[in-house]
Amino acid sequence: MHCVYLSDGAPVTLLFLRVSIQLTHLGNRRACREAVARATEMQHPTPFFREVGAGPGVVCLHANASTSSQWRALMERLAPKFRVLAPDSYGAGRSPAWATDRPISLRDEATLLEPVFARAGEPFALVAHSYGAAVALIAALARPHRVRALVLYEPTLFALLDAEAPPPNEADGIRTTAARAAIALDAGNPAGAAECFIDFWMGTGSWARMPEARKGPIAGSIVNVRGWAGALFGEPTPLEAFASLDVPVLYMVGKDSPASSLGVARLLTSTLPRVEVIEFEGLGHMGPVAHPDVVNEAISRFLERG
Predict the structure, then answer these.
(1) Quick check: 177 and 203 in contact, CB under 8 A?
(2) CA-CA distances (angstroms) from residue 234 to 1, 53, 160, 267, 295?
(3) Could you tell me the maximum CA-CA distance found in the chain, to the nearest angstrom?
(4) Which of 179, 289, 174 has its CA nearest to residue 226?
(5) 48-304: what fold?
(6) In a 10 Å sphere around its CB, with 0-12 CB exposed, 13-18 middle and 19+ buried, how is residue 249 labelled?
(7) What is the pTM of this model?
(8) Which residue of 11, 48, 137, 157 sits 20 to 30 Å from the alpha carbon of 235, by its own alpha carbon?
């Protein structure tokens, strides 16, 4: 091999080697920084959230198979008087994906939302539906001096029903539905899993009647159905703990809702110390989505009372 020498006596081949080593070190440093950033994001994930308005803080939590967009109409309605924030939960919208290496609990969901709670100011109100309402209750228990009011539409804390009496019980409907959806997923049929889930909550044939544009995101999120069920059936908080929530609570139910969510309502409304109950005639579990004007009117009145 012939070497060309530079003025300092070093051959060009050695120069190439030095540059190669330097670039390798630079690449390793960049890779390390990226790895640290990824690890930090995993340890301290940040949720996506929407924000409008000014005034006392209100945080809105959505249901399963939904996103923060569920609350757009309510956000517009409240914006003149309130600062309203609506985050996406794990695996929904633009928030971090559902973990695959460990179960996610309702406490984990609440921890994900801590930056949103901080931005809302103190004290803030929580408005929440279904799975989101279960997260809201756990979040309020952990932050009793930061939450000024709760607005809940059918929290799905099914563990309370199993704690009251082992199966068979009122939770069997959703238990069976989640199992059927999981079987459909294992068979490579996410649309079939979504149909099980949606038809349980909204009535037989609801999935078939749903616009195609809405089906894709729901079928995409339904992959988390085992995780949702695990969080809701595995929540260890006992019913009596909710008696310590000394804040005004608006608890809304649909008269046509399944026994699974109405059973939870039966337990919680008899335990929460400052609860006001509204039962909507002709509405079901998905009232905030299917009939937002009716539900949002009740939410607005409650919040504006202070």
Answers:
(1) no
(2) 70, 36, 10, 17, 29
(3) 92
(4) 179
(5) Rossmann fold (3.40.50)
(6) buried
(7) 0.86
(8) 48
